From TrEMBL:
Signal peptide: none
Ranges where the Gfo/Idh/MocA-like oxidoreductase N-terminal domain occurs: 3-111
UniProt-recorded name of the protein: Gfo/Idh/MocA family oxidoreductase
GO molecular function term, any single one: nucleotide binding
The GFO/IDH/MocA-like oxidoreductase domain, residue ranges: 139-214
Species whose genome carries this gene: Streptomyces dangxiongensis
Amino acid sequence: MTLRYGVVGCGRVFQRFHLPEVTRHEDVELVAVCDADEAGARKVLGPAADGVLVTTDLTEFLGAGRPDVVAVCTPNDAHTGPVLAALAAGAHVLCEKPLAADLDEARRLAAADFAGRLSVNLPYRFHELVPVFRDALPGDLHEVTLTFTTAGQRLWRPVTNWYGDPRRAGGGALLDLGAHALDLLGAVFGGPAEAVGCRVDRQGAEERVVAEVKLPAGPATVRIDRASRTLGLGVEAVGADGESVVLDLKRGEVRGAAGVVTASERQPELAAIRGFLDAVTGRAGGRTVPAAEALAVQELIARLYAVSVCVEGLTV
């Protein structure tokens, strides 16, 4: 049975990550798109727009489009309405992270997911090397460091420039990339984690963050630079004897004393979208990130923001 798929928010995230997975998934058919810019949505869709309902009206999208599956890819402050409406219509929903720009709204969405149909796009927990890295960890951990760097908006340019607006985004690099970082740490080391300290390069919509958390296994430092010249995502775990094991998701490697293990998957950022589609279509290997787990990550981020201090010229 082919499921009807619709998207709310036809911007860069949908274009770059969701659309390729939807168009090659045999059990999903793109039937409807809802976006404030109808002409822009058609341009993003390109040839995929043929036969697809493209509308600016959410009621028409859900009524005439009748999607079984809905991706919500709007800016952070515009998640709540589409998510709640799609859930009320009986659809399975994949929401971009974070759940919402506002923590109270995020809690509202998680509470509304009484049927377990709301998932969040946090892919790195599903990377094939996470179990390999976990098995290679030193028995007596001394320190853990996660470093996440991106080229920011020099490379990534949203259709509307909302990332730098604290009201619309809900925060800066910590909420944006920290959601991925902290979810990955939870997948490796378990939880819950405690907020210890946080430094940001500016208040509201920071580009650089150094955060300290306490994991069940011990302390960890998260370093994020959203305005870097390089792209990287890695976790280094060092034992009491100085032994180091590295999970390098940019290179797709686990490196340690036992050698190097290389991943076969070269696009780990697509894992949650692919897993969600497989789950809702009943395929083997389907997996999702429940809204409650994404909320726990966002609440940890809120606690880090609450203890944050601004350090001018902060480096990562």
